[in-house]
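To fix ideas, we reproduce below a protein record of this kind.
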Amino acid sequence: MTWREHALAVLVLFHASAVAVSSLPSTRGLLYRPAWKAPSVQDELAAWAETLSAFGPAWTGPELEDTLWDVATTVADVHELLLAPFQPYYTCCGVRQSWQMFPAPERHPARLHVDVLEGGVWRNVYVGRSDTADWNRSFFDQDRIRTMTYLYGWPHMRKLVPDLVTYLAPKAREDFPEATELRVRFWRYRTASPEEAAAGRIPEGAFEPGASVRLR
């Protein structure tokens, strides 16, 4: 083999190794403990703890959470060590992996509600996926905005909701000249089980704190 062929073989091997390592799943994006306290995550932990307990020692949800946190932290540290030699290559080629697969279904979604205060009475003007309360729907239906409002429904992201209210205020002032206040809230509910859906039973929910702003 010529030196060019040797160099090409080394490059191919390096590239294949870089792709293989970057394809390994990482837990770094999961290492924000407050997010683990969300109802959907706690439901998953409780369900898995019950399943594991059926095949061995008894587990509780909190015990499984602590164990998985330690495992996730270790996996993330090892993954970063493996990635370190290839980071300049990823940067040069622009091939960083920035997204993760969905770990579990959202069993406790939060639905966006937007209300205006008119004559001392709150009026609902927008509800996610509603055909009647559809104010400013062209804005809310954008893919990026839907992603944003989904994230705002998580407790640890709620601090960003005032920014959304502030952004919506100018259009609300224009579209609702009699309104004196605008508020954004999230309705948290549990998705129906197959049996509940078949029987037409809708699980109850509750509003969680949001944010509001004066319009006048």
